[in-house]
Write a structure and sequence with these properties.
It is an enzyme of class 2 (transferase). By secondary structure, this protein is of the alpha+beta class. The chain has helices spanning 5-19, 30-41, 66-71, 81-87, 107-111, 144-180, 182-198, 207-227, 240-257, 277-294, 351-361, and strands spanning 45-51, 55-62, 73-75, 91-93, 115-122, 128-136, 261-264, 299-307, 310-317, 365-368, 377-383. The two termini are 35 Å apart.
């Protein structure tokens, strides 16, 4: 699923470049991961491919040879993984020569890519950086266990990237703090020095100097809060129902192809949220999109109400729901679940984990209300914006 493809694409590329993963100084042994993945899935080639604007870079590679092994990258026109990123879901291709999406890809003739299996890799800010893929030079009907093997190695790669980004962020935060706190902390020290040097000469009470110390301390605290993301300036959601209706409108054509209706209840009054508009839209599009993907009849219902200082949104469908085995891992990344897309497409197992992460980062929650074997009902609780 895409969210404002131009802006999202630009943000994705900026995030990928800022991650430092396109170079070779990140210190992650992706090659070892691809070596193990190739053995486990019994394929000649396995890659961790990062999809840049005009190229794909192989951060990890097993089975490459010749100039390709030396350069560890190709022009974007040769990339199968770009489609995995753009589609935001696994790409399973038994024979690329017969697949209209990639049949004209020059990698088929030049590098012998015939069968392809790829899972999207999640990076910072819910952006997809590339894919973990398995490649064969012969036509291949990918078995379910092989798909799950690549899914598992994709989860490992995603976790390694998370750890790298956490280290990168911590270093950046420390560097910025040390730099920006020099000024106010230096002034506090100067004021303190005055107290020490001229304590016997200063009148009581020392209001002026106390205010100086307090002002500079407040400035330092404001810097820290800003660095920790407490002062983000982002357009907030002004009308929850309007945001839900916009998400539904975007997805109705796909729903109607499967005979599914999308209904958004009217709470009777506008409900403004503390959440950014963009975040609420992404959450609803993911949940509605999942309901469409896993259903083939009935409705998707979005019920909205305000309870005190919170807004509650229930997203319910008429699909098969989940089984008891799914519940402990429902919000885990890349977790294989019992339900399968009704249209036969593959699922990366990322949507619900992204939704949970987005909501929790903004003070919201999501829970699965329905019991095993019932149609799925997810409940979102988010803070309502207080009147200013």
């Amino acid at each position: 699923m895409r969210f404002g493809s131009h802006d999202a694409g630009r943000e994705r590329l900026e995030s990928l470049k800022a991650s430092g993963l396109l170079g070779d100084a990140h210190g992650i042994d992706f090659d070892r991961v691809t070596e193990l993945a190739a053995k486990a899935a019994n394929v000649p080639v396995s890659l961790v491919s990062l999809v840049d604007q005009d190229r794909q870079v192989f951060a990890g590679a097993c089975g490459l040879s010749g100039a390709l092994a030396d350069s560890r990258q190709t022009p974007i026109d040769y990339s199968f993984c770009q489609h995995t990123v753009n589609l935001r879901q696994p790409l399973v291709i038994p024979d690329a020569r017969k697949n209209p999406l990639v049949a004209k890809n020059p990698a088929i003739k030049e590098f012998g890519v015939v069968a392809y299996l790829g899972f999207p890799v999640l990076g910072a800010g819910q952006h997809l950086y590339g894919a973990v893929c398995a490649v064969d030079t012969e036509p291949r009907q990918w078995r379910e266990d092989e798909i799950e093997i690549i899914r598992g190695f994709t989860s490992i790669v995603s976790a390694l990237i998370d750890q790298h980004l956490a280290r990168l962020y911590q270093k950046l935060l420390t560097d910025v703090l040390l730099h920006d706190l020099k000024g106010p902390l230096g002034r506090i020290r100067m004021a303190a020095d005055v107290f020490v040097a001229r304590a016997s000469e200063l009148p009581q009470p020392l209001d002026t100097l106390a205010q100086s110390l307090k002002g500079n301390a407040d400035q330092a605290s404001a810097m820290v809060a800003s660095l920790l993301g407490k002062s983000r300036q982002t357009a907030k959601c002004d009308d929850l129902r309007a945001t839900a209706e916009a998400a539904a409108r975007q997805l109705r054509p796909r729903a109607e192809e499967k005979g599914i209706q999308i209904r958004v209840d009217d709470p009777g009054t506008a409900i403004p949220l503390e959440l950014p508009e963009r975040v609420m839209a992404q959450v609803l599009e993911h949940l509605i999109g999942n309901s469409i993907r896993f259903s083939n009849v009935g409705e998707v219902r979005i019920r909205i109400k305000r309870v005190g200082e919170a807004a509650i949104i229930d997203v319910e469908d008429d699909g098969p729901g989940f089984q008891a085995i799914d519940y402990p891992r429902i919000f885990q990344r890349y977790a294989p679940l019992s339900a399968k897309p009704s249209g036969g497409e593959a699922s990366a197992g990322l949507g619900l984990s992204i939704v949970k992460s987005l909501l929790e980062s903004e003070g919201g929650t999501i829970v699965l209300l329905s019991h095993p074997g019932e149609s799925a009902v997810f409940r979102i609780t988010v803070p309502v914006r207080r009147a200013e």
